[in-house]
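Researcher: Structure for this, please.
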Amino acid sequence: MTYSFGEVSWDSELEVGKKTANTKDLYLKLEPGDNEVRIITPAYQYVMHRYKANEDDKGYGVRINCSATKENGGDCPLCKQGDKVKVRWLVGVINRKTGKYQILDLAYQAMMQIKKLRDNARWGDPTKYDVNISVDPGNPSAYYTVQPLGKEPLSAEDNLIKDKADLDYLRSKASPLTPEQVKEKMENAAKFAEKDNKKGVQKPATKKVPVVKMDDEEFEDYAS
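Model: Predicted structure, token format:
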């Protein structure tokens, strides 16, 4: 199987299944309740694996972008060994709570709702209005609810933020690896796991979403 990477049109079907300083703060971690944002970039699709070199790893594992592209005929070491993939999308937004530019790492459920707004004649292009992404950890069937907040043009300050958005960074994070790079990352993860085992180090449990354990992992450390 092969996957698409990089910028995607809002009209396209959803698939399933340069480094900035302070990368951790660059990513917006959606909080339970309301999260009001303005999307100001195209969506960039990427496909990744959650690789665990150690079966006892209780965390999320190591994020490794898939290398299965049409160009290489679907060659990915992790796919070959049966590791499942996750298709996700990166979009640049203005966080209305802080007034700052951040990156949203969207799971399928949230992205699908944004696309439904795009296909709605009343709303259309999701960059033309603010949206509220509501998170309900206790409701797995409606973990995300995306609602439009009314069409308004970007302010002068918004446009300055939009002009400074680093699209090259989004493209780089949504780029596939080569099979060789995937193998290298797997080997590095295995070395770290072996080193921790020898030291007797136990990896601290990743913070869990209360009530329901979701597969979307919105609360993980994106700096990894």
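Researcher: Any notable elements?
Model: Strands lie at 6-8, 36-39, 43-51, 62-65, 85-95, 100-106, 129-135, 144-151. The chain is about 25% helix and 25% strand.
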